[in-house]
Amino acid sequence: MEQQTGSFTQIIFKKLRKSPIGLISFSVIVIAGFITLFAYLFATDSTKNANRQDLAIAYAPIGHRQLTIEVPLPNYTPNRSIEDYFFGKEIDTEQISISDYKVKNNQIIYTPYLGNGLNGEPLTLDVKEWTKYNISIQDIEKKYIFEKTYLLGTDSYGRDFFSRLVIGTRISFLIGFIAVFISLLVGVTLGAIAGYYKGNIDNMIMWLINVIWSIPTLLLVIAITLAIGKGFWQIFIAVGLTMWVEVARVVRGQFLSYREKEFVEAARALGFSDFNIIFKQIMPNIIAPVIVISAANFASAILVESGLSFLGIGAQPPTPSWGNIIKEHYSHIILGKQHLAILPGLAIMILVLGFNIFGNTLRDLMDIKN
User: How many other C-beta atoms lie within 10 A of the C-beta of residue 184?
Assistant: First the structure.
């Protein structure tokens, strides 16, 4: 048998490097986390929620290029703040789709694009719309009249679909972290108390676990959501409060086993408090199964949130979520715009599959028999 050296974490990473499928799934999770953190740097529409609309180019095809003129609004600011890089910038310019333009006598004469190959009557804008914000006439043509590329086309409201898809990663990924954190906080606490003290306390907690376990997860989440309201944070809390049961059952089983071990008996004989025994003596020994079940719960949380958003009680528009993007466009599967529903569905599948495979890989790597 090969002798493993180093800490437990180092041994796990050494084993992980030898597992191609484990590395791929881990890479998917890392990439999703990176996109979540810097979503507005990757998005081609950096406005808040990528909600810049232009009905003239609704349902534009993949790779569509559109000549665009950008006109400052009264709240225009030339630069992005640090907050804008993480949460998006408020819309402070109007982007108008045009077919052509010319600059004449300190005026910009442009032909608006109306969609479906149709053009409107020529309109005029005075360069003062830009110069009053200290934008030179030379910079207008260089920076404010440009050809904009829509990598994945646009949705039914003329919004950049690629940007909506990228920013939607944030909801699906964060729901996993927050829901799993809540489930660990509740599940580990109740499971540890039930398994360590046994008796009536165990019976009461197990009764609660069995009641919660008997209610379908989706129905329970819907009930909690209706009780505390719809919204961004409410859905995180609702999902987290329904996922602690499995954690509690696993932790309880581990504590029932470890509470009879010699080192626990020795800790009691030395006068250690119950708190010390639970959290400093037993808890470090059950980290492995808790980590594995947390990875599985990540995947479950993403699926539940997507289902709720599809039903309209998850993240509310205009906040992009893979679930509500599918809801808005699932009918287009038979209307020639299949990518509007298939791509967010594919993103959900890849991320959930990544977490499931990584959880299974961790389970195998943490098996002391290997």
Answer: 20
Distance CA 49, CA 128 (A): 30
Distance CA 17, CA 325 (A): 36
Instruction: Check: CB of residue 39 under 8 Å from CB of residue 166.
Output: yes
pLDDT tens per residue across span 55-105: 999 999 999 999 999 999 999 998 888 999 999 999 999 999 999 999 888
67 — phi, psi (to 5°)? -65, 130
The helix/strand/coil state of 77 is coil
Provide the residue type at 208 as one letter: L
| Residue 182 token pair | 């809540």
What is the model's pLDDT at position 168?
Answer: 93
The alpha-helical segments, DSSP class H, found in the chain are: 8-17, 20-37, 39-42, 82-87, 128-131, 137-139, 161-197, 199-214, 217-228, 232-240, 244-258, 262-269, 274-276, 287-311, 322-329, 339-365
Distance of alpha carbon 78 from alpha carbon 334, whole angstroms: 43
291-300 pLDDT, tens digit each: 888 888 888 8
Domains of the chain listed by start with CATH number: 48-150 (no CATH), 161-365 (1.10.3720.10)
Contact between 286 and 258 under an 8 Å Cβ cutoff? The reply is yes
Lookup: tokens for 220? 């329970």
